[in-house]
């Protein structure tokens, strides 16, 4: 394979999630999507026995606004003996607008004497629903080959953009400052508000059996599969939506009183702190945290209900949830991850 690239962009068209653009090089392939209403499932195929020495795979996925897609790989990713070399994979993900985006690559199996590096970077909109999972095994357990890899490294970074509501508030604030400066005889400012994204979650896993004994207490012990799942829930200003609905019902009254409601600078006299960018951020964060706490409870309750076998940890991060799993069977790990996806997306 040496170096190979796979690119896919999804888009919502006529009420269905479809392929907007696709490009791939051997050994990558893409199965025909399975569409059910708005949702579509995509399976990325890898027509190769596994990663060999010198292989570099690049995956680039763009989830378009409004699209609803789940992308998985065909089967377990095998990393074969890389001798003195290594193999690598980079995954770049983007979720735009209110996309529902799920990326679930099958677990990675590092073979004896293998060296593998995976780097995943995601840039997502605040309004998007985003789920990503990483699962790795301790080796070919069925062949009694545990902790025989040379080195396995996995890095994940997720960046979340500023919410649309805050972005609009910043623009409104900038325009108000320009208008005020212009009326006072000063030249209007031309600086646009600084829009940014922040690091919401970062994770790194290093497996180096020659340096560490992963069967010790505080490590993997008897477990053979480790999973890390990141979940981002849509950040919405629900209070603003309610206010907008009430405002629409009272639009006639507001129009009659609009002139008297302006102060000397032409800014609404009844404008409250709730319209400032900082207060909108706080409002959105409060709603998001409540939704995340509810999801944590639901995931833990589901684990109890299905009798999850293994160790489970669920916690909030800077922005979103992190779920960590340790099990002795790949099916237990991946099935529970799919259960989490169903809980989050309402499937």
Shape: globular
Please provide the ordered H/E string of secondary-structure elements. EEEEEEEEEEEEEEEEHEEHHHEEH
| Major sheet attributes | 9 strands, mixed
Range of helix content = 10-25%
Strand content: 35-45%
Strand element count? 20
Oligomer: single chain
Mean pLDDT: 88
Descriptive terms for the model:
globular, alpha/beta, 7-stranded mixed β-sheet, 9-stranded mixed β-sheet, 20 strands, 347 residues
Structural features, described:
With about 350 residues, the chain is α/β, with parallel strands linked by helices. Helices cover about 25% and strands about 40% of the residues. It contains five helices and 20 strands. It has helices at about 165-185, 240-250, 250-255, 275-305, 330-345, and strands at about 5-15, 15-25, 30, 35, 40-45, 55-65, 70-75, 75-80, 85-95, 100-105, 110, 115-125, 130-135, 140, 145, 150-160, 195-205, 225-230, 310-315, 320-325. Strands 3, 4, 5, 7, 10, 13, 18, 19 and 20 form a nine-stranded mixed beta sheet that branches. It has a seven-stranded mixed beta sheet with strand order 2-1-6-9-12-16-17, with no helix packed on it. Strands 8-11 form a two-stranded parallel ribbon. Helix 1 (about 165-185) runs antiparallel to helix 4 and helix 4 crosses helix 5. The longest helix is centred in the C-terminal third of the chain and has 30 residues, at about 275-305. The chain starts with a strand and ends with a helix.
